[in-house]
Amino acid sequence: MNPQTPLTIGAVAKRVGVAIDTIRYYEREGLLPEPTRRPSGYRSYGEGTVARLRFIRRAKNLGFTLEEIRDLLALSADRTRGVKAVKQRAQQRLADIEARIAELERVRGGLAELVDACPGHGAPEACPILRALGGEEQP
């Protein structure tokens, strides 16, 4: 495809793998610039929009919030401090993910103990899982 050929919103959505409503939402949120309009009123996009959407999608997959993505997009154009600031944001995101993983591992361990302790039959009041969920202390 010619990089100068304007794209419809549907073509952009298909190339990036997002819904058309997602593109409109990102436009409203200021993550994408307002597209030019054809004489028919339809939106017209270029390859820059495709690249920016891919950036947004990949950043979301790495756990960045839309506000953080907005910052990353702004920093990507900052020639003097951009890379350093991007690295700092990524380090913070990594620390947040590691903290969530530690919490999930703690929850997994507790749940595994409850599952192992539960015989899977008998009276509900004897079930360690139900007792734990009900707030009673385990023996």
Automatic annotation (TrEMBL):
Domain of life: Bacteria
InterPro entries linked to this entry: DNA-bd_dom_put_sf (IPR009061), MerR-type_HTH_dom (IPR000551), MerR_fam (IPR047057)
SMART domains: HTH_MERR
Span of the signal peptide: none
Keywords, in A-Z order: DNA-binding
Residues of the HTH merR-type domain: 6-75
Cited PANTHER family: HTH-TYPE TRANSCRIPTIONAL REGULATOR ZNTR, REDOX-CYCLING DRUG-SENSING TRANSCRIPTIONAL ACTIVATOR SOXR
Name of the protein in its database record: Heavy metal-responsive transcriptional regulator
Organism: Frateuria flava
